[in-house]
Amino acid sequence: MTEKIESKRGSDLLWNAWNDHAVLDRLPDDCRPTRRADGYAVQQHIEARSHTTLYGWKIAATSVAGQKHIGVTGPLAGRLLRERVADVGATLSLNGNRMAVAEAEFAFRMRHDLPSRSAPYSFAEVMDAVGSLHPSIEVPDSRYADFVTAGEAQLIADNACAHEFVEGPVAPNTWRDMDLAAHAVHATVDGTSRRYERSGSGAAVLGDPRDALVWLVNELSSLHIALRAGQIVTTGACIAPLEVAPGDHVRADFGVLGSVDVRFAD
What we know:
This protein is of the alpha+beta class. It is built from six helices and 13 strands. Helix 1 crosses helix 2.
C-alpha cells in the first residue's frame, strides 16, 4: 500500500467512529501514524467529507498542563468543519461525547490569506491579517478509547480532538490595543442540580492567544497549507476545561470583549 492509501484508511476509521459515537483502541498498524507529519496526512482527508469549504482551525494543547495531560510535546492543529459549528445559545447533544467538557477560547477570523512560504510569519504580519476577534466555546472529543495515551501523531490524525464549536459575536476592535494575555475570562456552569464558576486569562494560551495564532499560521505554512481569508482560528482553552453534563448551561464572559453561551442535552 502507498502512504496515501494508508492515510485515507486511517481517516475512514476515525470518521466512522466520530459519526457512529464509537471509539478505537488505536489505529491499525498499516495506517497508524508515528510522526506528526503522518498524523496531518491522515487528518487532511477530513476536508473532502464536508459539504462546504473549511470553516477554520483549532489549536489543542496550548497550555503546559494540557500538554502533560495528553503526553504531547507541543500544540496540535485541527480542522473545524462548518457542519459542526453551532449558533450562540444552541443546545448541543453530549451523546457519545466522552470528554464532556467545554472550553472558553479566543478565536480570530482572518481578513486575508496567509499563503505557505519558507520564511516564518512574524507576529506583526499575522496580526495584520486578522479581521476580528470572537469570544467562543469549543466542545472537543476524541475517537480513541484512551486519548491520554494515544500519542501526539494519533491525536493529530484524530483532528486534534475537534468536535463542535460555538462562535461568539464580533468583539469591539479595541481588542487590538489590549493585553490579551492579562485579560480575564470568567465562566459559569449552571445545571439542574449544581452551579460552579471558573476563571482564567489569555496567558493560559501559549502565553498569549495571539502567539498561539502565530504558531498555527507557521505550523500550517510548514505543511504547505495556507490560512484563508474568512477562516476562523480558535486558540485553545483560556480557562481549565469545564466539566459539563446534560442540562448544563455554560456561559463564558470575556468582559468588554463580549460573551458566548451554549446548553447541553443528552
